[in-house]
Amino acid sequence: MGRGVVRRLVWVVLAWAVAACGRGSRTTPLPSIPPPQPSATAAASPTATVTPSATPEPVAARVNGEAILVAEWVAETRRALAAAETLGLDLTPAQAGPQALDALVERLLLAQAAREQGLFPGPAEVDARLEDLRAARGGPEAWDAYLQANGFTPETFARALALDMAAARMRDAIAAEAPTYGPQVKARIIQVPTQAEAQAVLQYLQAGSEFRVLARQYHPGGQGDLGWFPRGVLWAPEVEDAAFALEPGQYSDVVAAEQGFFIVYVEDRTDDGPYAPWAVRVLQARAVEAWLAQARAAARIEILVTPQAPPLAP
């Protein structure tokens, strides 16, 4: 199962909780949310009884010194497994464990950046959102049942909600930097499974056959139409590169890619036009992926557990 699918499963329980608050107003950033601290030891005296310090909660990972608790990791892994089962997907603990931890690391990286940029939600915002969620669930009893069913305590849910709100805001800020207009081409393709077939199509074109006519034969539905697109959005970079190397009315040689063999035809191009909504979404998603890759490379990430072996036993 792909990493992106599991990331969505890991956050599926909280997705509805942050949907309405991802674009809230900027507030003064909160300090880091620390894990529970050991309680203070009573002052020593001849007659005083010394209270033992609480045992620190086990830590699964640290991201720039900030902890992800084992309890958080286990709970997220269980939620991912439950969501996969509901959706009929095959997911084992050995798969879910590392990918759930990976998703929590990414969430924390985004939340830390949000804190630095003043996008972290304030306590009042988190409390207000919690009140909305409790009301939407039907009251305290239904809310408590929801938390228990999904492996949360009130404290861990509040922490997770704050981090998710912050991460959502940071994702939005990164996505907003993706371009929405610029150079693009309007192209069609003919796709075939073998190079021999592609060479045959190319010979037809060289003999004077119209590209649209051949495209209709090979692709009766969409006729090979890719529409308008900028760089950085196609599933096959080779096809994209070929398209941007052509002028309107030109077709390419045979282009080999992982998905098969292609001949590309450019109908039009512009140096400055608005991108289609689907292209903007792809560029935004890739901007977030690139940001996360850079953030990971610069971060201090310590993995303190065996990710493939989450301790799921009660």
In short:
This protein has 314 residues and is of the alpha+beta class. 49% of the residues lie in helices and 15% in strands. The chain has eleven helices and seven strands.
Describe this structure in words.
The protein is built from 11 helices and 7 strands. 49% of the residues lie in helices and 15% in strands. Residues 10-48 have low confidence and may be disordered. A 4-stranded antiparallel sheet has the order 4-3-6-5. The chain has a 3-stranded antiparallel sheet with strand order 2-1-7. It has 2 domains: 3-35 and 57-177 and 286-303, Orthogonal Bundle (Triger factor/SurA peptide-binding fold), CATH 1.10.4030.10; 182-274, Chitinase A, domain 3 (Roll). With 314 residues, it is α+β, with helices and mostly antiparallel strands.
Keywords for this structure?
11 helices, Chitinase A, domain 3, four-stranded antiparallel β-sheet, 314 residues, elongated, 7 strands, 2 domains, three-stranded antiparallel β-sheet, 49% helix, Triger factor/SurA peptide-binding fold, alpha+beta
Integer tally of domains: 2
Distance between the termini: 26 Å
Mean pLDDT, all residues? 86
Q: Enumerate how many helices there are, as a single number.
A: 11
Structural class: alpha+beta
CATH class of the largest domain: Mainly Alpha
The CATH homologous superfamily of the largest domain: Porin chaperone SurA, peptide-binding domain
Order of helices and strands: HHEEHHHHHEHHEHEEHE
How much of the polypeptide forms β-strand, as a percent range?
5-15%
Total number of β-strand segments? 7
CATH topology of the largest domain: Triger factor/SurA peptide-binding fold
CATH architecture of the largest domain: Orthogonal Bundle
Radius of gyration: 26 Å
User: Quick one: biggest sheet?
Assistant: 4 strands, antiparallel
- Could you give the order of strands across the largest sheet? 4-3-6-5
The global form is: elongated
- Helical content class: 40-55%
Low-pLDDT residue spans: 10-48
